[in-house]
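If you are new to this repository, start here. Below is one unmodified record pulled from the training split, so you can see the exact layout before writing a loader.
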Amino acid sequence: MLIIAQEPSQATDKLRRLLDSLGMKSRVFYTNFETDVDGNTISLASSFSYSSEDDYQGKPLFFNDLSVPLYWELWTLGITTYLFDGKNRRANIIFRENVRERTVKQVEWFGQGEKVVAIDDYNRYGWRTKQRLLDDEGQALMDIYFNRNQEEVLLHYIQDGYLIDQESEGRDRIFSGREELTKVVLNQILKSDEAIICMDSNLIPILQTLNADRLVYCSDSHDGLEFIQSQVNHVLITNYYPQEERRSGLIYLAGAEQEGNQPFVAQAMVMTASENIEGLAGLVDKFPDIDFHIAALTSMGPKLTCLEEKTNVHLYPGISRKKYRELLRKSSIYLDLNYGSEVSDVTLEAIANEQLLYGLASTVHRQYYKALPTVFASVEEMGQSIRQLLQEPDVYPRALKAQKEALKLADRAEIMAFFNQLEGGER
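And here is the target side for that same chain:
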């Protein structure tokens, strides 16, 4: 099935993870111009740049392997690398996410007075996918998209809006803008028997003409759904809503990712925007056999850093989303004990990941969590429950089932049956 959205989001991530967990083959089409994509992702630009499976092979370009004119050299100053022509600085190298690996994400080329005049983008496979040309004011003039052989395949005149497809036969195609290009690409990539999960309401009229019977809409919230419900067969909701807030006619997906057979591991996690985590120090001392993973998007205060000397405490200041999800996958307990605002929807992600949520009535970030049997009035009561969890293996699956029932999470078998029906073309 084909997922269609404007750009990556938490909602698209949730949907893709759910389909993967159900064993459903899917791919996603983003109506943007991203060029650094995986083999199951298509964008307006990548549909022109990538033409075979070989294009998805390779590794990020190491900075020393960047092709430069003879006698030019790369100088690294701290974490920044520049390109010099022997006298003048001619370019700035921007590294990919893991700076230590020194692989190229972008190259900023300088004109007179070190003013950036062009920016080259490199993908995860090590080849240049795009060059952006800038005017004297630093505004984007034009994007040139390349294939792996460094042939120009698509030109985007940004200020005027139109695009030119550089066909190999020499017969260029001109598109008035993104909307026209989107229609053409959809007609090219959509298979006749493919179910469509649309996450961009603007595309519904177009998609209805392509495969209306197998078209559903997916959203992360209830906002703006009244009209959409009349246009498609089904509307899916990725975010969790308590039973009393749910609307009729919608299919709620939260919780369906749970397989119900995860073994218990003595790993606990908390994501926090505050150093004030109720009872954490006591739990760390009381349960030396549990590894406590404490993560934050920013730096951490002394109340947390002082715990680093404990062998069962692991701190992750400035954690990436990738690392956070890695920790979620290996943890069985989530501690909703931190004061202050919740970081994104981390508790919901933890529940969807089949973690058992422990918290206090005074700290849990959502009112309906107070109905959970693992939310207590005191840290002492919570500690007793965690001890039982460690001592009795049967407690964990029973507690997860009770959590799922209390929150009225989606039934995995029913959601799988729905997608199987959608994939089979039945309404």
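Two things worth knowing about this chain: The mean pLDDT is 91. The chain has three domains: 2-30+190-252, 63-173, 267-407.
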